[in-house]
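Repro:
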Amino acid sequence: MLNHQFTTREKILILVCSIIALGIFYYQFAFSGFQSQMAQYDTADLEDQVMVEETRAMKLSQMKEDIANASGKTLGEVAVYNNQSNEIQALNDILSGRATSISITWNQPTLTDMTVRRDASISFTAADYATAREILTDLSNCRYRLIINDVSLNAKDTETSLTESAGINASVTVTFFETADGAATTQGLIVLDDNSAAATAEPTE
């Protein structure tokens, strides 16, 4: 068995080597790991995303306010039932050339007293926010009486704001109004009475 007595110089050298080894260990397994975790939680990207969402919310709120103001006005012709083919053509005129990926779903129209309501769910993609806004404004000014019930706008690229030209996915629900007064038939209508009970209308004579 070795029975070596370390000199003061050797003890100092061992201590220095131990400190260096501990420093290397700390850097490799503690400090580097900490830096890596900090990079993952870099707040700069989070702040940018918050700004994008705030801009989107502000623009959407402004558009909804404009549409609500326009919808409060008495605009458009209340056509005699059944005016769906003309309403389809009006939507085509508004969307054609300015929107892609167009989808329109129609609900069965309802009749309350002499008022016919026909809901349509519309989705489309516009090149940018300005184009989407123009389309929705033209919808609110349609030649046939309608109200806009709901609007949803989302940038195709979630990293961009609604003001940037990255494409806008839009969805909107509208209700067209017609009248049964003077209609040749009421066939196909769901009749709603005062208690909101529904029944399919029988053909008129």
